[in-house]
Structures are given as C-alpha cells and as structure tokens.
Amino acid sequence: MGHLLVVQGDPVRGTDRHHVEGEGTNPAPPPATVFYAGLGDYAYKGSVSEALSTFVTVAGTPVALVSSRSGLDPGEDAPGGGHAGPSGGTFTPAATTVAPAPLPATLRITDTPLGTGVPNSAAGNALLTVAGVRVLLDGDPVDTCSGVGEPAGSKVTATGQDFVTCSG
After folding, report:
1. Residue 141 has pLDDT above 70, yes or no
2. Dihedral of alpha carbons 165, 160, 49, 47, sign
3. Are the CB atoms for 22 and 103 separated by under 8 Å?
4. Is the pLDDT of residue 168 over 60?
5. What is the pLDDT of residue 59?
6. For residues 55 and 36, what is the distance between their CA atoms, to the nearest angstrom?
7. What band does 163 get if pLDDT is binned at 50, 70 and 90?
8. Secondary-structure percent of the chain, ordered helix, strand, coil, rounded to 5
9. ∠ at Cα 138 (10, 4), nearest 5°?
10. CB-CB neighbours of 21 under 10 Å
11. pLDDT for 149
C-alpha cells in the first residue's frame, strides 16, 4: 500500500516534554507556596510550514521534504493555548523541588526555541526524492520542540491532497 505525500499546511500532532518553572503548594507552610521546577507534557498542534520544495508541487501546493519544518498553529504558545505553561499535564518535579505538584496557572515553559518541528531521521522514502532530498510521507515521525531531546514525539498527516502516493 502506498503513502500519501505531505504538502504545505499538513498537520503535525503529538506530545512534547518541556522544562517548566512556577510555584507549587508548600508541603510545610509557611509560606503557602514555594518555587517549582520540573517537566510537563504538552500537546503539539502545528503544521508543515517552512523549507518546502520550490520545484515540486501537488495541485500548486509545495511538497514537504525531510528538510522541511513545522511550526505551532497560531495561538498555541500564547496564554490559553495548548503549548503554554498552564496547559501542560503529567508534571514531574525536579529533584531539587520540594513542592510535589505545581500550581498550573503559575507555570511557564523555559525551553527555547519553542514550536519548531523537524522530520525524524526515519522519515521519508529513499526512492522518492527531490534534488536528492527525501519527500515527507503521511504518518512520518516528527521531532517537535521537546526540551528534553526526546525524538519523534509527533507525526505528520497528509490532508492537503489525496491522490499522489509513494509505494515502495
């Protein structure tokens, strides 16, 4: 069975782990709160948007390559967005943090840059290339902006076209 080719604007979805800082409830008050540092999981909702093929298009839309990049959807890293400090989950405190859990409203992600994704080294197909660079395919893994260096936290889905496939 073939795989659809990915084009500009196709969605990238997954989960990233990020370093966070804020406040947590003090287990031995006073004071009521103490500094909190740790890790949290965040939803990555973005799309393929940069470094696309300038040579090959599908219905006028540039094809994505393994050298392409994704970025977060508008508002995702803003207050209230899914990739902002308070929106995380599965928080794990750092060894030096006395608070067992954070107060989510106080959290901020400390990793930078935030939002960029790059195709994982396992992405693409060696048989289909543009100027020697593999074309990105539906379901390929994407290394999104995890602050702890975890690869392939996301995947790209071909939604921009439904008739050009790669088999092999």
Report:
1. yes
2. negative
3. yes
4. no
5. 87
6. 49
7. confident
8. 5, 45, 50
9. 95
10. 17
11. 84
Count of helices and strands (H, E) across the chain: 0, 14
Q: Tell me, yes or no, if the pTM score tops 0.85.
A: yes
Q: Which residue has the tokens 């003090």?
A: 26
Q: What would the pLDDT profile of 33-49 be if each residue is shown by its tens digit?
A: 999 999 999 999 999 99
Which two structure tokens, joined as six digits, stand for 49?
A: 């948007």
Name the residue with tokens 């992405």: 123
Phi, psi of 161 (to 5 degrees): -160, 160
Beta bridge partners of 156: 12
Contact (Cβ atoms closer than 8 angstroms) between residue 21 and residue 108: yes
Structure token pair of residue 137: 């395919």
* Rounded distance between C-alpha atoms, residue 168 and residue 110, angstroms: 42
Read off the DSSP letter of residue 81: S
pLDDT digits (tens, 9 = 90+) for 71-86: 999 999 999 999 999 9
- Reported as half-sphere exposure (CB side, CA atoms, 13 A), residue 115 has a value of 16
